[in-house]
Amino acid sequence: MPPNPRFVGREAELDTLRQLLFDDEKVRTAALVGLGGMGKTQVALQLAYWVKKSKPGYSVFWIPALSEATFEQACGDIVKKLAISLSSGDKDPKCLLRDYLNSPGAGNWFLVVDNADDHDLLFKGTGKSEGLIDYLSESEGGRTLFTTRSRIVAGDAANSDVVELKRMSPQDATSQLEKSLIRKEAVHNSPDQVQELLNELECLPLAITQAAAYLNKNQISVADYLGLLRGTPRDMVSLMSREFRDKTRYKGTQNAVATTWLVSFEQIRKFESAAADLLAFISRIQPKGIPRSLLPPCESEEETTNAIGTLCAYSFLSSRGDNEVFDMHSLVHMATRIWVEQRGLTEEEAEKAIRHVYEVFPNDDHENRFLWREYMPHALKMLQDPEAENIEERYDLYHWVGRCLKQDGRIKEAVQALEQCHRWRSREYPEEHPDRLASKHALASAYESNGQVKEAIDLLEHVVEVRKRVLAEDHPSRLSSQHELASAYQSNGQVKEAIDLLEHVVEVEGRVLDEDHPSRLSSQHALASAYESNGQVKEAIDLLEHVVEVRKRVLAEDHPSRLSSQHELASAYQSNGQVKEAIDLLEHHVVEVEGRVVAEDHPSRLSSQHELASAYQSNGQVKEAVDLLEHVVEVEGRVVAEDHPHRLASQNNLAVACREDGQVERAIQLLEHVVEVRERTLAENHPNRLGSQHALAVTYMKDGQVERAIKLLEKVVEIEAQMYDEDDSRREVSRYWLEKAYALVREEADEEASLGEVGSEVEGWWSGNNGEGETTN
């Protein structure tokens, strides 16, 4: 960022900042706060060059905080520039930079954190997870300046050491205009009109810059520009001013900015309609991170390039460097919405925008993940607006947005989007309409991922019933809904029903699909998972080894389906006593790869960490298991509901690991919570409910609370007698522990008296297969 040759004035604010940061040894952090467009960045840049010139012992750094991505990118650039060693093992550039600035070797330094406007982005980590503020150093040798529009951010970041950037003086505003104009004589030839223009613009630096850009491009006089401003209908200006204040919560100085931008918008509309169409479209989406590929194309690529160039020439758009992603200032964006509204086109432009975004929005195939992540903020912004509520494409877009959100592990948002789609299609389409059934299927899948298993089953049973009536036995949609219903049955503890359904699906797909077809492999995977849950571990391993082998041939290393089948195979290995093989598969493939490619709170990543912790526990690595499960439980506590099956399973397994680590009281506390929630939400004979009751009973015994253990175990044994065959290992293990508890009450010395040999074997089975230890995959 070179020095700004057009910078003028602001000496009072600069002097205050110099005194705060470099004369007062007690102050290490200050904030510069003011309205967007007031010139905060340029003041900070001026101060940075002053430090570079006047404080040769200081290093100077600059980090934009527009988003987490820009923050991390800047940290990475600085780390690379400083050649900071990665030997610490921490590859997060934010952590590396923070640690470096905290070190004596960093010396004295000055850091500008620019555009720190998002309070949640900076401070979201308080007590729960890290915000950007947690990656900033507070070393004695450092000085930090935040620029922000938010007084809340300023106060939280710098306490009382806040400098407010107010309206520029008329003299400085005149100097800025003169420096910004190509024809500088215009300022001297018409001084009265210049002052009138600056008064109309309220001496706001951004408005002055925009006005100068307009004057330079169109080569009109200051008087002509002033005439355009004053020629705007009064009611339009009044309405725009009110809406501007309402939407931004700022008063006074914003009115003229909006007026200036509206005049420019009208000029563009008259002379470059393609650029005006782009402005109208952008008014419906997010102002930041706009992919060029999302913009509606003009009649030719050249016309599109020219339209974008016009918006960039007015500084309404700025390129991130490659001309593929653009940003619009949020105040400019707000002005575009006001401009569209004043022309009475809000509904029309909203409909056009939704139809276009629906056309270009990708499906949820894994290969499209980078594209949908670029488009997602813009689609969500459009869908949050109330306009265009009754067009079909809005709900078609909801469908794909929801499915892609689910793929990214954003389950709650996925449910909300898919509910919107399902409600509309249920109202508008007949029962057998393919799109209505597809939305019901997708919503059920999201419900299952969100722990709403009963709601998922209700929806899927209806979908399966209708599709059986209207579709052939081997139709992909019919098989897909049967597969999904089987998955929900398994989640609900109805394992036999799941197996029956999946064996049918696998048999049909085996006749009509190729060996490496994704649907066939997915169904085999699901059947193997059900076999494992039913204790048919060898059958599960045989199927999964086949699925893993085929997917290794046809899918990339980081493809979710390949990782999922490796995860499931590791689980089956563990259930079969092949613990080392399970750990190797999880450590060196699944967990390692997911750590690189999916977010920390993605369900698949958490599930794999859970599974690895379970394998550690089976291998006697109890402390490693506790550490990993504590992380999983903490993250799930932030992102999923209290009664979500995965969260409860993780708490259950953490409790068992804590018990083995000697933390019996903590184990009891966790298990009592799990049992209480499951008794409220699961059927009496649900395997997970029985498993947590069993685990709590054993933990009570470890704590000497034998009577409480007996009460729980008697209930478990009674229910399992109605569910399983006489020689089922699940019944044997429960009877073993109950006999052991009775023996303790009778004060029998020999604790192995009842089922000694059998008990020793089946206790291990419980810890590895849906008893005390539970899977979440």
From TrEMBL:
Biased composition (Low complexity): 761-777
Gene3D superfamilies assigned: P-loop containing nucleotide triphosphate hydrolases (3.40.50.300), Tetratricopeptide repeat domain (1.25.40.10)
One Pfam match: TPR_7
Location of the NB-ARC domain: 11-184
Disordered as annotated region, ranges: 750-777
NCBIfam families: FxSxx_TPR
The protein's name in its UniProt record: TPR-like protein
Source species: Podospora aff. communis PSN243
